[in-house]
Amino acid sequence: MKPQIEGDLQRITCGISNGARWGNIALGNIVENIQHISSGPLTWSKYDVVIVGSGPSGVMAARTFAEKGQAVLVLELGPVASPGAIHRDHQAPYSMAYGARGKLDTDPWTACCVGGGMQFYDAITFRYRAEDLTASRFLASDMEIDWPISISDLSEAYSEVESLLRVSGTSGHPEFQLSGRGRQLFASLEELGMQPKRIPLAIDAPGEASGCISCSACDERVCPIGAKASILSRSLFYDEGLSGSIDVRYGIFVSRVLSSREAHIDGVECFITFTADILNIPASKVILCANAIQSAAVFLRSSSIHIGQPTLFRSGLIGKGLSFKISGYSTGYVGDIPSDFDGPHAGPHATVFSDKFYSHADVPTGLGGMIYEANLPTPNENRKLLRLHYIAGEEPWSHNQIELTDSLDANGVPRLKISYTNSQNDLDRINFLAERSEDVLRSMGMINIHREPFQHGKATCSSPCSSRARSVVAVKAGRSSGGRSAIPAAPV
């Protein structure tokens, strides 16, 4: 029998709520409740709920509790990211994790800032599909990979999110105009029978109030004018009109969950990076909304507690079943021949996609992914070329996992080790999508085609409503060899 999923959980799963605007960089009404942890004393005991992480899931959870009259405290490690900030530069100070080869070369974060990865995402807002929630029909794994909900369970929440974010092509909002290169790509995809479509974008269109001004190529950077929907540009933490309250404090790292007895939460132990002080914050409810790597790490650092199920920590499942999206890029060059791709590109990262091979008999396993326009970060980099991105969900296996190491970072926190290898199915699937992308480039007359190495994607927006929602399933309902799941099935 399918478990009942309450509306609130559906909204949290979709990861967004509503609020006033942030547009044109004026933080306005949200300044008062988003502050550095050292900005002034708080009565910590007044909070009913502590939420770890201020990204899309965190803000949705915060609003859900505040709507019910709860006092909510949201804790975030990173600051408010500057308008125009670039993701790579913003993330440079934060500690790396050990990769499979034992080097400190793996990024375990999405984005350390108020608003999380949604501050840097590309505003691409696809929905998940039925195939994504029942992937065991296509993919192999030694873990349970199907979700306990259906697409119809999420439909109303998706519509709410799309309306609130003003996603193009949904809820009565017009489709976003194609870029110049997007028009050429659309025509070529159509000629090849690849069913091109306009990408749903959470961006206010040019000409609208605070609309896009095509200032750059809009890839992994904070929108400087608030045209791109984000947690700050929609003031989603703004709590006016709610029966409860939301306070956000940043500059604080949550080390572990505190528990003195089984099935009871006492609060969280935190490290204030500004002062190097340890702070214990009491709470009877703690919601982990960091990315799935960091949420799993909090669990691992809290291994002596018993939250609800004593078998949770004995199961050995925490941190296992790590699953990204595998993706790659192929770029076609036009050389010195005059073409429609001679000029720079500024504006959205992508405007056109093909989903013909999302679920298709020709794809290895039958489950493929998306192919879409993917412009380079700065306008002039896009001269005389067209770059395509292909992306697919990976198979989760228990040997792909997160572990704590004995090595400590500068704050005395155990570094993480992330062990990860792709399955042959994943490699076959992404190769298929790469070949189809290169067929498109050749059909457009590109004379030189370069394929970048495949890579694991990490969530730059932890919302299933985003194409960049490369949800990392770290603590997930699973079945170890011969055993039943020790964790209730739930979406991460």
Give a quick summary of the entry:
The protein is an alpha+beta fold. It has helices at 7-14, 56-67, 87-91, 130-133, 151-165, 180-191, 292-301, 311-314, 424-443; strands at residues 34-36, 49-52, 71-76, 97-98, 104-106, 196-198, 245-250, 252-258, 267-272, 277-282, 285-288, 325-333, 352-354, 370-373, 385-393, 401-408, 414-419, 448-451, 455-457. It has one domain.
Order of helices and strands: HEEHEHEEHHHEEEEEEHHEEEEEEHEE
Kindly state the mean pLDDT as a whole number?
A: 84
Number of E strands:
19
Assembly state:
single chain
Residue fraction in strands: 15-25%
Largest sheet: 7 strands, antiparallel
Report the C-alpha radius of gyration, rounded: 22 Å
Helical content (DSSP H or I, runs of 4+): 10-25%
What structural category characterises the helix and strand content?
Answer: alpha+beta
Helical stretch tally: 9
Query: What would you call the shape?
Result: globular
